[in-house]
Amino acid sequence: MTADSSAGATPGRPTVAVLGTGIMGSGMARSLLRAGLPVRAWNRTPGKAAPLATEGATVTDTAQEAVLGADVVLTALHDGPSVAGTLTAAAPGLRPGQVWLQSATVGLDATRDLAGLAADLGLVYLDAPVSGTRQPAEQGTLTVFVSGPSGARATVLPVLEAIGQRTVWVGEEPGAATRLKLVANTWVINLVNSVAECLNLADGLGLDPRLFLDAMRGGPLDTPYLQAKSSAVLSGDLTPSFALSTALKDTRLILDAARTAGVELDLVAASAERFARAEAAGHGDQDMIATYYAG
């Protein structure tokens, strides 16, 4: 099945159903609207989707309504079960040949199951997890990893150009993009916990953490990420650009994949323990740098 089966799209302006308008979904919806693409938005909690109506989106009461007439269905939900449940509920509104751009990080097993669901529903499935947080989603500067039928590229290209500054086409096989995303997330998860532990140690030694940041600034070991996440802790502004509970979910998906591959990831396992402690202490809805409070 190719993108030709979604021929109802206006060239260059496919209608996009965005299912899930949390941190990432709402940002991507706004990027699509800025690019002039028609957007139909739905969220399980209606209040999270409602603001998009004032920006030009059609906000619907059900996922089924959202997908009616859409050329591309973009899912930006929390995990595999929520994605599967939403698409199953939306099924009466779907039509064969619609392109499903599945952007949530759901892991290897769920990706395989969702590809099977897409086949059952007659959809063209693109495994398309994104790399980035709140600001890149809102600015349309995400990196999108995509694997799936190359025939769908023409249909989704305007969508990908609207939400991302870069698309990495990983292959024809659904799951290849998810594997790359899990590797990329391993770097991010270990990095954020390294930042937190450096700040923890500075505090424990009675050292002003700003001295550490000044020592790193401008050198080969400095990164914008180190400075930004440290600034969030020092200012006390833990507004989530990527929630700690979501980071914990992704960390567990990485560990599941590593076990399947026979790979030991000691740092990721330690990161999972830190995230879990911070979540238990009430920081799950804050930015993932709240791993600083793991204790």
Which regions have little confidence, pLDDT < 50, spanning 5+ residues?
1-8
Helical content band: 40-55%
Structural class: alpha/beta
Order of helices and strands: EHEHEHEHEHEEHEHEHHHHH
Number of strands: 9
**Number of separate helices:** 12
What is the CATH top level name of the largest domain? Alpha Beta
How much is the average pLDDT? 95
Q: Choose one word for the global shape.
A: globular
Write up this protein.
With 295 residues, the chain is an alpha/beta fold. It has two domains: 3-171, Rossmann fold (3-Layer(aba) Sandwich), CATH 3.40.50; 180-294, N-(1-d-carboxylethyl)-l-norvaline Dehydrogenase, domain 2. 50% of the residues lie in helices and 13% in strands. The protein has twelve helices and nine strands. The protein has helices at residues 23-34, 46-49, 63-67, 80-90, 108-121, 134-139, 153-163, 176-204, 209-216, 224-235, 244-261, 266-283, and strands at residues 16-19, 39-42, 58-59, 72-75, 99-102, 124-127, 130-131, 142-147, 164-171. It has a six-stranded parallel beta sheet, with helices on both faces. A three-stranded mixed beta sheet has the order 7-8-9. α11 (244-261) packs antiparallel against α12. It is globular, with a radius of gyration of 20 Å. Residues 1-8 have low confidence and may be disordered.
